[in-house]
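[audit] Reproducing an earlier prediction to check determinism. Same input, same settings, fresh worker. If the tokens differ from the archived copy the diff job will pick it up downstream; this log only records the rerun itself.
[audit] input (251 residues):
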Amino acid sequence: MSDLLYPEFQSIKQYVPEIIHYIPILRYSVDHQPNEPMAIVYEARPPTATPTVKTKVPGYYYTHLHCFFWRYYLFSLLHMEFNTGTTKKRLLLPTTAGFMQRMLIMMDTVVEQLLGCMELGDKLMPESRFHYFDHYLVTEFVVGRHEPDIVEDWRKELENYNFDLERIDPELLDWAEYNRLLGNLLNGTTYGGSVDKIGTRESRLQLLDALGQWYKMSVRKKKVKTPVAFYGNSILEACFLEKSALSKQIT
């Protein structure tokens, strides 16, 4: 599962700044034309480079990849903006910054796994599946977090005894409900799935607030024009999926 891709931080700590620095330098996007069996993944080096075709992927993955790339670059943008300056001036608390860094490293690993599969090129068929990405999707939907200890705690809960994460097909999950619970800010609808359209600091603060509520993060108290709803130890409950959201899932 994707918790296996979640980094053991001490072993990679020295490489984290460099990895995170390079994430926004290489920008991936995906496009899918109606009735086409395959979607196209593009690669670009912003802000001036023209996107070039990287590979093709089964059309089934278009929406998932579009949302994944949005979140990947959103984490990068917010971490870069709110974790700069001296420690006392940073808006992110150390625990939150660490969580975002781990998520970025994990998502970067997912990207590397995807690109490795995508190198198959013409051998990929519309019915091809990327197992690591499927595992990421299922864990994100069902558990809501990817840390190994949280995933293990989820497995131990009596009500989850009959759920085998490795056997759940992401195609059978109710992603429309998932995106509704995320809201238009976090699912990317407000900005058309592009972090380049997030124009103001206030907009980024709103996104940080929404992300904090979803993942139960916290930030420092800071006077801002747009109030951030969670500070210090005052953390809003995350909008994790209700059981009704799993109604289409097989057991």
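[audit] rerun output stored. Observation attached for the diff report: Residues 57 and 198 are 28 Å apart (CA to CA).
[audit] end
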